[in-house]
Amino acid sequence: xxxxxxxxxxxxxxxxxxxxxxxxxxxxxxxxxxxxxxxxxxxxxxxxxxxxxxxxxxxxxxxxxxxxxxxxxxxxxxxxxxxxxxxxxxxxxxxxxxxxxxxxxxxxxxxxxxxxxxxxxxxxxxxxxxxxxxxxxxxxxxxxxxxxxxxxxxxxxxxxxxxxxxxxxxxxxxxxxxxxxxxxxxxxxxxxxxxxxxxxxxxxxxxxxxxxxxxxxxxxxxxxxxxxxxxxxxxxxxxxxxxxxxxxxxxxxxxxxxxxxxxxxxxxxxxxxxxxxxxxxxxxxxxxxxxxxxxxxxxxxxxxxxxx
Length: 308
Description:
An 8-stranded parallel sheet has the order 2-1-5-10-9-6-7-8, sandwiched between helices. The radius of gyration is 17 Å and the shape is globular. It has helices spanning 24-33, 49-52, 58-67, 86-105, 136-148, 164-170, 213-231, 257-275, 289-307; strands at 3-7, 39-43, 74-75, 81-82, 111-114, 153-157, 176-183, 202-207, 235-240, 279-283. The chain is of the alpha/beta class. The mean pLDDT is 98.
């Protein structure tokens, strides 16, 4: 089996204002960085309304659809913008994540990487936030539980910003384990270690500004991997944000591509132990284009090697 790369050109049609960090060039650089690799490229399908309803209420979905402008760009909140095509871009992200889950659980791919935008991990139940419209990874987790009957789905989010949306959407879901490592304090200001979910199903790992790769690895060895081992997931989802890189302009952690490759490998080790290597990784943040491209390539190279 090979690694599936799930993407769609619609995700290039989501346009933000000049100078906005979540720009079209992010996905262009990611796709260019992955050219020439042994990947099964899959076109992301559009998510259906019933898919979004796994996590979001109908009025939230209606609000986002109505907010999409016919031309130009429209602002939803201080950070999040929409253009013609933004809804389809976000629906490709959700639909692609669900397709990745379906493929991996059916044994049609060893693992999968979702290369779409906008990201999703800041979208709360009824609130857009932080560039995000829908909670892509949380919807994928609920899809695995509700439609595939899984009873233990883990989500690991190593984006530099706290995955507040995923936490909100999975807070009361006892069949999930959500783990977020993130710089703290930092926008959005959430994610203290004291937030543990309605069923002890949330683990927040705040990292001090300036945390380097060695400290990051030690924190994962001490906290994240033992928790995953104890949970024994049947599927592992990754919110793969690469803005913890030392060159990223929006934060202050000091990771490198080697650290992202290392954490990917260790997560794959746990997936091999507990769920037959079933991993679906979804692109989140990363705003220095060179660092994003190099880090994504390092991450996907590990997925390819582990799936071969």
